[in-house]
């Protein structure tokens, strides 16, 4: 039999200016033993591939966006390549890059990342390329921090940064005249004019266009935690009157929807949009906070505007909030959105997910389609493997690390893959009906991992 080039040399990963082997199979992909039928029962929900528009992800344990406060003038650096690369290598199917400001004054801290100029594209592309070299997917979260802008990093106390230290205390913007600061450490926001609002919508669209040039697979929007879009949506922080951006529910939610539309106009049709929402403000009725009913009214509008995934978080708009923190504390909100049963919508939950049992519980119960994990991925970059071990799922591992397998050896010849569906096609529960076997690349590769 003729020998093949790839019998002797690894294929190079694409898009990198140096040689590194392209993974034969993306880490974190489920592998079934020979003879196993691919059914809903035979593949744990955490390892059932999922498709959003043209993007297919091999598992459902995803890295949530986490600001690193590590940029100068908004630029990503080698730090970010290493930071995001660690999860790509170790099997996180989708990594959302941290909140990235669409304007300079939209940064939460002066050290936040940004995408307000074309010069920011190349450093972002380096993150995208390292993630893609590992055959994983990457999104970027676009952000305007609104009245929470211009403070120091959390470990320095989230204090308003004076101009001489790179802050912009006079250009911190919010929906409402005068008051409405998050707390006394923060700026008293200046009210956005209509022109400012249109400029910000445009800035989201422009940043999305730049992210597409950098090669991302999806665009995420930060619509939660009291930042600009949330602060407009919630009546607790938006007391604006006399124009189309304050007052009624329709007016308050207009900004978020226009931002989504601007992004949708600037990205390919096959690219998904994620929207992170605070499902509730955790405020007493007297403070007119955003409620679950508002969320259930807003999500279908987001989907009509072009959103494919809602990421269900909560809180952050008013410091008088009383958050009932605890395991799965935001899952009931995700479950309520799931019950809307919106065609083509993926529902993600986030918050206080620290172990495999919780991931398993959320996905097995169908309360969410995807679990976003933040802090546990910081503690344990191998969290996908932790879930795989706990759910007895054999998954593909890093070829270069084959001497250190993370799960017991199972002779396997089949990978679990997913046949992408067109965006509007009817999907079965958890998309499982489209799973099928794919022959492993060759019969020796699993064995060679055990050498
Ligand atoms: C260091 C750190 C930075 C964060 N930065 C962001 C961010 O940029 N965008 C965002 O939407 N949420 C951010 N979050 C919130 C997380 O995405 C997540 O919603 C929250 O931490 C709850 O999930 P966890 O319990 O898994 O950490 C951050 C959280 C942490 C710990």
TrEMBL record:
This protein's record includes keyword Oxidoreductase: yes
Statement: the UniProt record of this protein carries the keyword Manganese: no
Cofactor(s) recorded in Swiss-Prot or TrEMBL: FMN
Domain of life: Eukaryota
Pfam families: Oxidored_FMN
InterPro entries in UniProt: Aldolase_TIM, OxRdtase_FMN_N, YqjM-like
GO molecular function per UniProt: FMN binding; NADP binding; NADPH dehydrogenase activity
Domain NADH:flavin oxidoreductase/NADH oxidase N-terminal: 47-388
Keyword entries, A-Z: Flavoprotein, FMN, NADP, Oxidoreductase
Annotated protein name in UniProt: Nadh-dependent flavin oxidoreductase
Species name: Ophiostoma piceae (strain UAMH 11346)
């Amino acid at each position: 039999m003729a020998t093949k080039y790839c019998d002797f040399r690894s294929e190079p990963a694409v898009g990198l200016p140096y040689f590194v082997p392209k993974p034969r199979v993306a880490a974190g992909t489920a592998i079934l033993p020979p003879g196993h039928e691919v059914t809903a029962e035979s593949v744990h929900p955490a390892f059932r591939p999922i498709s959003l528009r043209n993007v297919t992800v091999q598992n459902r344990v995803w890295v949530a966006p986490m600001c690193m406060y590590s940029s100068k003038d908004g630029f990503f650096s080698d730090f970010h390549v290493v930071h995001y690369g660690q999860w790509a290598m170790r099997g996180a199917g989708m990594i959302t890059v941290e909140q990235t400001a669409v304007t300079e004054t939209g940064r939460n801290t002066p050290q936040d990342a940004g995408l307000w100029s074309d010069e920011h594209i190349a450093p972002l592309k380096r993150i995208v390329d390292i993630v893609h070299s590992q055959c994983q997917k990457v999104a970027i979260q676009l952000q305007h921090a609104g009245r929470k802008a211009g403070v120091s990093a959390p470990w320095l106390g989230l204090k308003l940064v004076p101009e001489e230290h790179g802050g912009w205390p006079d250009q911190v913007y919010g929906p409402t005249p005068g008051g409405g600061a998050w707390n006394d450490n923060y700026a008293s926001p200046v009210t956005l004019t209509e022109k400012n609002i249109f400029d910000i919508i445009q800035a989201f669209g422009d940043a999305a266009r730049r992210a597409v040039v950098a090669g991302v697979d999806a665009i995420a929007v930060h619509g939660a935690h009291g930042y600009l879009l949330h602060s407009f949506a919630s009546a607790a922080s938006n007391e604006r009157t006399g124009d189309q951006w304050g007052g009624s529910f329709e007016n308050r939610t207009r900004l978020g929807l226009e931002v989504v539309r601007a992004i949708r106009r600037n990205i390919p049709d096959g690219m998904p949009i994620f929207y992170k929402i605070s499902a509730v403000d955790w405020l007493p009725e007297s403070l007119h906070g955003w409620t679950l009913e508002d969320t259930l009214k807003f999500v279908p509008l987001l989907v009509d505007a072009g959103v494919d995934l809602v990421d269900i978080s909560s809180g952050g708009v008013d410091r008088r909030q009383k958050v009932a923190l605890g395991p799965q504390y935001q899952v009931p909100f995700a479950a309520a959105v799931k019950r809307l049963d919106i065609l083509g919508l993926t529902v993600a939950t986030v918050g206080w997910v620290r172990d495999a049992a919780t991931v398993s519980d959320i996905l097995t119960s169908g309360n969410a389609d995807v679990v976003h994990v933040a802090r546990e991925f910081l503690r344990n970059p191998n969290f996908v493997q932790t879930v795989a071990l706990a759910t007895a799922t054999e998954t593909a591992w890093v070829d270069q690390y084959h001497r250190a397998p993370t799960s017991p050896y199972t002779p396997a010849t089949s990978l679990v893959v997913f046949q992408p569906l067109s965006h509007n096609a009817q999907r079965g529960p958890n998309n499982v009906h489209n799973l099928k076997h794919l022959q492993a690349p060759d019969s020796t590769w699993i064995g060679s991992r055990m050498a």
